[in-house]
Amino acid sequence: MSENMAELVHNQKEKQTALPIxxxxxxxxxxxxxxxxxxxxxxxxxxxxxxxxxIADALCGKDxxxxxxxxxxxxxCYQIPxxxxxxxxxxxxxxxALMADQVDALKAVGIRAERxxxxxxxxxxxxxxxxxxxGKIDLLYVSPEALATGxxxxxxxxxxxxxxxxxxxxVSQWGHDFxxxxxxxNRLKVLFPNVPRMAVTATADGRTQKDILxxxxxxxxAIHIASFxxxxxxxxxxxxxxxxxxxxxxxxxxxIGQSGIVYAATRKGVESLAEALxxxxxxxxxxxxxxxxxxxxxxxxRFLLEDGLTMCATIAFGMGVDKPDVRYVIHADSPKSIExxxxxxxxxxxxxxxxxxxxLYGPSDLRRAFMWxxxxxxxxxxxxxxxxxxxxxFAFLKGSDCRRAAIRSYFGEIDPDxxxxxxxxxxxxxxxxxxxxxxxxxxxxxxxxxxxxxRTRVVIHLLGQAKDxxxxxxxxxxxxxxxxxxxxxVWSMIFDELLFxxxxxxxxxxxxxxxxxPDHSAAKRLFNNExxxxxxxxPTARRTRKSRTTSxxxxxxxxxxxxxxxxxxxxxxxxxxxxQIGKPPYVIFHDRTLAAxxxxxxxxxxxxxxxxxxxxKKVKRYGAAVLDIIKHTD
Length: 634
Ligand code: ADP
Ligand code: ZN
Hints:
The protein is an alpha/beta fold. It is 46% helix and 12% strand. The strands form 4 sheets. The chain has a 7-stranded parallel β-sheet, with helices on both faces. The protein has a 6-stranded parallel β-sheet with strand order 8-13-12-9-11-10, with helices on both faces. Helix 18 packs across helix 19.
């Protein structure tokens, strides 16, 4: 941070020392210092959304629970009060990669941050602790494991300004990413009874919120819950049909040049997908927990540093990745819950520019979600919650309501407006086609064939196409050949519906599932016509949708041709500079900042400071280079 900023911070800390740590101030805190700090250090002109309220509460020493959507700017909410209050800020964060990224970004704006995790040597840790004790560090990042293994006691001697618990939903078994290590965080209250704590997360339904408060035992917390809307995300979901790889290639071809993530459920799926995409001319990398650590690190590094790569990954990838210009997140296999979906999709468009979330789903995904729930080692009550969450996710994916509004309602917002942009908002309300009669035939066939038969075979049976002795054996049943009105595809869709509705279920080996009727009362209702199963009017046609293909090169459509030239020149310079310092380009400047530079064409350092994303340190470090490029490209 610049000298005058350092002095301002110092004075502010002194003022705060007058107040015993942890004691709430009587009057509202003076936010002008926080605003100046925001501008001069981070280069941002104003706080966003709830940031200011959260910071105000934290500055006066309250415990806080803050729930902000991904990209909502959670980090600033704890960084600023932690720096402005007397003492060192402690940030608990679940992933080393996440910490490394944050610490890099903080150092780049001149904030003195260090991390203490298992990848840091003993000596380096001791150095950092010493520096912290001498007031030479603003923020210390620690992992929950490190706290559990004794570091807590070493930290107990430090004057702490604030403890931030990032990804706080990990503390709750009701959340979607429970981490047992997080349970040890209740020690923090014992070790630091007088230090205010702030729990932040992007996803927590009501039950998870309560659990976070209880587990961490926050004291009369101020609770801030932001809207879950992400207006720059365009969402869509489509039922899987045909060859999945072909579908993904056709989705990705028009997006070549953009960075994005494709999530698949299995390691094998990830690898074959990355290979297939590369073969089809789409630059792609693979990431999953089974790859050697160096390969993983290398691929993650390349994804951050290079523009325009597609990362094919399991959910092992992402939590530590704060890349702001991810333009799409595609679920090649569906996630486990709406929380997981929203967190994963939330990795797109952190820079606020248009980005897309596309989910593919099928009954095998639902089955996998159930298996995950069933085979985990959680209590039965939790397993039941997970099954319910999987059902809610599929109701959402199959649903015809506005996607964004559905998500917002799920997280508790009342009557959110439709977004007007998602697949459901933009498609014509489809006529439905009542297929209850056929659904009855399908369930009858499953029952008659003994409930130990796979879906392909039941369809062959319905179509009266016996292929071998087994099928011929079944041909004596009255359901043999009764389904010739419909083609295979339509039958397959009907089976999908029956699986989604839980009138049929799949059992057996994951690779060779058989169909059975899990609940005879539901089947009975279907036979009594108390249950309607319907498909779109033209169930054989693949749903085609308008896919908004943003210009592959950059997403900034509001730039004039001349601005575009400067923007590209700045981007080239940024790519080169990033290569030289071995850091991701966005640590230098975000695309948005480059676009603002291209539009404003500043000619001196003061003008540079007016641009969002440029603070003192960046003016000093990059100002001359940027001004030079603008001057010579204009
Ligand atoms: P989260 O952790 O909530 O996903 P981050 O804290 O990483 O989000 O912030 C997302 C992005 O928004 C970051 O690039 C951050 O620098 C930027 N940002 C945060 N607050 C502001 C603000 N007030 N004005 C402009 N940009 C901001
Ligand atoms: Zn919508």
